[in-house]
Structures are given as structure tokens and as C-alpha cells.
């Protein structure tokens, strides 16, 4: 399914057949080109989109949930999503216009974005996804008669991200959680939260998936691949090395206290910081914040007290 204007290029959507009708895993971006690709792609394998029983959305992001509402309109089927992401969809749908921009701008300022704050806050965002009909919990079996498609809660990329274990075929739909060549964005929003640890959740979720064994992986991007457990080990090493580099940077600069934006500017991205647009800088800051939070949870860095309204700052815990 094409994603217009996005470097990922496409989302892989899967149809799981059953005697009661097919269930889709994800649905793609809400765009006419993607809709035609979905409708015609299903028809090419003998499936009429009007016969779809339901759509299981691995997480709420628009390249996965965007077309679920249109599939529901055409087929009368249901949409299912983990309860934690359903809560986010409700929040997003209630935060429009100036409310969203003001929230974004305040978050940027607390991160130390300075002049970048308004530009990031004013960047466009896609329409929110349709509100699901069914809320999933860890271990739930999907309503798919004759098959065993089980929910595996894998928070990190989003609070309610799920993988789906097709137990009767030894396969795992991994969404964005485990990808063969890249790693998913792990961000913390708002950036200065101290009550959650999305990267820590993600690393724990990798262990959950690895414990399922060497299943064939069917991801939402790139390509299918064998032995999902081996890939989870590689991804864990990637993040541990990233955390180690970040801690070294903070330690070298201590006793100076760094804002989240300072840290994001110094981290290595796929392009130089100066080449990143406002939205990309915002996502980079979210990822920097998630890594900082994990180091804080581990006790290797600490927050520096400041005046009310000042950006949050971090320094090495030993200082």
C-alpha cells in the first residue's frame, strides 16, 4: 500500500483467510491511491473488499490505521485495536486545530526547542484514524473462526502496539515492532514525561517476541523474513549501543546540563540535523527523549532542578 510522500514508501497489508471471511492485518494510509491498491490487490487474489470480516490494526499510526474506516464502510466489518492505542485515538480525535498546535508548541519549549518550537508545532498532521469497534488486550484471540490469531501486546513504538501470532501456521505479524532492516521510531510524548519509559517497554517487548521462538515474520514494512527471535537480538544490541554512546556524550559534557533539544541536535540521524524539516526534528527530539528517559530509569543520568517553566535538563548522575 503506497504511502504518498513518505520515505518508507509503502505498508504491507495482509489478509488472513477463514471460512467466515478474511481479516486484514492493518489497512494502509488514507489516500485514494492506497485505497485502489488495497481494493485491486485483494481482488487479484480472489477477495472482494466487501467480504472483509474485520481489520486488526497493529497500532494507531496513519500508515496502518488510515484506511480501516473506509474498509468498515464498504464491508460492514469491525475494526480492532489494543485498548491503549484506542485511548490515544480518542485523545487525538478530541485535540484539533489550535488546541493541538498549542500543545505541540508548549511541549517543544519545555524541550528547549527555542525558535524551532513554533515551526514544529505548525507542521501538518494527518487526519486521525477511525475509532475502533473492539478493544484488544494481551492474549486475546481475534474473531476469526477456524483460525488461531492471538494478540501479543508489544508496547514501545506506541503504547498499544501489538504483534499477531498466527498459531495455526507458525507465523508472526510484527507490525512495526520487528522489521528486517530498520528499527521503528521509539519516541516519548510529551518529551519531559517521567511516568513512562517507552524504550524500556520496547526492549521488554522484544524479549516477549523472542520467547515465541524462530517464527517466520511478516512485518508491515520492507520484507518478510525467517527467525524473528534472531532479529530481536540484533535490534536490542542496536539500542544498547545507542544508549551507551548517548551516556558517553552526556558524561563528557557534564557538569553542563543539556536540554532534550541539545541532545537531539548531537545525536546521529540518517541526515544532518540542518537538513531535517520541522516534523523530522520533532520526531528526532521524541526519540532523544525516550533514550534519555531510559538512562534516567537506569540511574545513569538525572534531571537538574530548574525554575518553573524552564526546559527540562539532564546531566550525568555521578555529577
From TrEMBL:
PANTHER family, A to Z: ENDORIBONUCLEASE LACTB2 (PTHR23131), METALLO-BETA-LACTAMASE SUPERFAMILY POTEIN (PTHR23131:SF4)
Taxonomic path: Bacteria, Bacillati, Actinomycetota, Actinomycetes, Streptosporangiales
Domain Metallo-beta-lactamase: 10-221
SMART domains for this protein: Lactamase_B
Organism: Sphaerisporangium flaviroseum
Protein's name according to its UniProt entry: MBL fold metallo-hydrolase
InterPro entries: Metallo-B-lactamas, RibonucZ/Hydroxyglut_hydro, Sec-metab_biosynth-thioest, WH-like_DNA-bd_sf
